[in-house]
Amino acid sequence: MEIQESELRRIRSEKDLLQRQLRDREAQIQAMCAKFCTLTEEQRQEQITVMMEEENLNLQQVVTEQESQLAEQNKLISELQETISQLKAEIVSTRLQLLEHKQAHKETQSQAESLQHKELQTRVALDHISSKFERFRNKIIQAAFSVEGIQDPVAELTDDEVLEAMQKIINERMEFRRKLKSKGSKVSLHSSDSCTSSPATGKRRNSSK
After folding, report:
1. What is the DSSP letter of 148?
2. pLDDT tens, position by position, 20-49
3. Cα(209)–Cα(203) distance, integer angstroms
4. Which CA distances in Å does 206 have to 197, 198, 202?
5. How far apart are CA 90 and CA 96, in angstroms?
6. Is the CB of residue 70 less than 8 Å from the CB of residue 18?
7. Angle 41-145/159-208 helices, nearest 10 degrees?
8. What Cα–Cα distance (Å) separates residue 10 from each residue in 58, 68, 77, 87?
9. Cβ 126 vs Cβ 104: under 8 Å
10. Which residues are within 8 A (CB) of 55 and not within 5 positions of it... i.e. 6 or more apart?
11. 39 Cβ contact partners less than 8 Å away, ≥ 6 residues apart
12. What 3 state SS string does 86-124 have?
């Protein structure tokens, strides 16, 4: 835009120069007219006629050239003004795009900070869960290998081995409860038989007496 405006100023300066040249030509003509006033009327008329014709031709040529130059300059000025208007519109559009990019960058940065915060919370929760799982795992290992006759593991147990040990404990406890229930039912049956048989024996004893 600065280059275009500088070109516009240069063209306007050339236009002013051409107008000054026209004024100088007019001043020269007036000086020549004053000079011819001292000649005889006949000579003066002839010289004036010849010089006026030559001057008219020169002036017509100069006017034609200047009109052509002025037309070109006006066309160039119009094009430069249009270019300047387009550049101004592009500047406004570019500024709007920059503002949009800046706003989008702020939103993206805010989302990134939110994701980092969520990631930190997730890591803390994961560490907490991992710690609880490790304590639970250690309890399972202690329960599985605290029984007499079972040797402590030589190497670190895998998760599958821990699950197998836990399943073994569950099966043993279920078997133990099943046995307890079985024994309990047998005891209750024995006790009911003894209770029913004692009155009968008493009656037999009484009858024998």
Report:
1. T
2. 888 888 888 787 777 766 666 666 677 778
3. 10
4. 14, 12, 6
5. 10
6. yes
7. 40
8. 26, 17, 10, 20
9. no
10. 29, 32
11. 47
12. HHHHHHHHHHHHHHHHHHHHHHHHHHHHHHHHHHHHHHH
Cα(8)–Cα(55) distance, integer angstroms = 32
d(C-alpha 143, C-alpha 172), whole Å: 12
CA 39 centroid distance within chain: 90
Residue type, 30: Q
Q: How far apart are the first and last CA of the chain?
A: 141
Express each pLDDT in 142-175 by its tens digit.
Answer: 776 665 555 566 567 677 777 777 788 788 888 8
Instruction: Based on DSSP, count helices (H) and strands (E) in the chain, helices before strands.
Output: 3, 0
DSSP symbol at 194: H
Integer angstrom CA distances of residue 195 from 37, 73, 186, 190: 172, 134, 14, 9
- Would you state the structure tokens that stand for residue 28, as one six-digit string? 């020269």
Give dist(CA 141, CA 25) in Å, integer: 117
